[in-house]
Structure formats: C-alpha cells, structure tokens
Amino acid sequence: MIENWVDFVFNVIGGATAFLCLFDGTRRLCAYGVHRKAVLMTVLAAGICALYGGFAYWKYSDLKATLSMNQRKAAAAPLVANWARLSPEKREVLNVARARRTFMESGTLASYVDRAGETRTLALTQEDLLRRERLVAYYARAEYSARGSLAESLLWLIIAVIAVLFGILMSLEKAPAGPTREAGDA
Questions:
Q1: CB–CB of 33/16 below 8 Å?
Q2: Could you give the CA distance from residue 55 to residue 61 in angstroms, rounded to a whole number?
Q3: Judging by beta carbons within 10 Å of its beta carbon (0-12, 13-18, 19+), is residue 42 exposed, middle or buried?
Q4: What pLDDT, in 10s, does the model give residues 1-52?
Q5: Which of 169, 149, 173, 178 lies closest to 52, judged by CA?
Q6: In terms of pTM, does the model score above 0.85?
Q7: Is the pLDDT of residue 74 over 60?
Q8: What are the beta bridge partners of residue 121?
Q9: Which alpha helices (DSSP H) does 33-125 contain, by range?
Q10: Average pLDDT over residues 155-175
Q11: HSE-up of 186 (CA within 13 Å, CB side)?
Q12: How confident is the model at residue 83 (pLDDT cuts 50, 70, 90)?
C-alpha cells in the first residue's frame, strides 16, 4: 500500500534511473573498455541500488528486532516485598492487575486469588479485549511491514544483477564499424 505518493514517485524515478545507469554503464564498460564516464556511471548507480537495498534491509532488521523483543515471553512479575502485610483488597487488586497483564502479553486467561483466598479466572472486560486486539493488530502490521522491507531489499539486489547482466549481454552485440564497400564500388 502506498502511504505517501511523493516518496513513491521519487523512489520510482530514482530506481529507474539507477537501473538504466547501471545497465548503460555496464554495457559501455564491456563494449568499449574502461573509461571515466562509464566507470562513474556504473559506480554511482550501483551505490544507489546498494543504498536503497541497504535501507530496506535495515528497516527489516529493525522491525524484526522490535517484534522479537516485544513478543518474547515475559517472566512472571515478582511479588511485592511486603506481600504479607498488604490488606486482602490490595492483594486482590494486584492479582487482578497481574492476570490482566498476562492476558495482554500472551492472550491466555490467568487465574488470581480473591479476598477470600479463592482462586478465580479473570473476567475480561470489553476494554481488555479491545486493547489485546489492538496489540495483535499492531504485531500483524509490523510483521507485514518487515516482510515487505525484506522483499524490497531482495528486489533491489535482483534489479542490480539484472541490469548488470543485461548490460553485459547488450555489449556482446557488435555494431558495424563503418559503411561496408561492395565489390563493384571501386
């Protein structure tokens, strides 16, 4: 999905220019030998392709690191140091908060101990479900964006390789050196 049309247009223009310059620079290098303009064109175009691909891969690795850090299983929260001195109401509130946090992090229903010392399963509210749904949607969007960034970085690599290969193949076609003379033109 295109989020910003100006960025999209500049990326298309930059990518097409890099592809054409890499193609033509490689073609000139292979057909006519090493000279300054061809080397400069090839190096700049390859640098632009590497820059676009590197940025896309950096975005992919950053998103994957963020996702892996956020989605790992959290350790159980330690009990408050003065747990025994807390009132039963405070203990119940802390247990309910711990059960809600467990639901938000993992999606599993947790049990808690109420005031009377009985174990109960957390009764979720609509707000709890909405927050969990938003969190899962965020993770799904971030995963989709990470995969898109990886695909983009691979696409830049493939485009660069294809431009170089096309440049080499087109340089193999030899243009005629000049007008040919037929036998009767003496």
A1: no
A2: 10
A3: buried
A4: 567 888 889 889 989 999 999 999 999 999 888 889 999 999 999 999 999 9
A5: 149
A6: no
A7: no
A8: 111
A9: 36-71, 88-106
A10: 90
A11: 2
A12: low
- 133: tokens are 């749904």
Q: What is the H or E stretch that residue 28 is in?
A: helix 5-32
| Angstrom distances, CA of residue 107 to CA of 64, 73, 80, 111 | 21, 11, 24, 13
User: ∠ CA(62), CA(68), CA(71), 5° rounding?
Assistant: 135
What are the tens digits of pLDDT across the range 88-125? 788 888 888 888 888 888 888 888 888 787 888 888 88
Which helix (H) or strand (E) segment is 19 a member of?
Answer: helix 5-32
**Helix (H), strand (E) at residue 165:** helix 126-171
Buried b (16+ CB within 10 A) or exposed e, 46-72: bebbeebbeebbebbeebbeebeeeee
At which residue do the structure tokens 């007008």 appear? 179
Q: How far apart are CA 71 and CA 167, in angstroms?
A: 46
Length of the chain measured in residues: 186
Q: Which two three-digit tokens encode residue 155? A: 């696409």
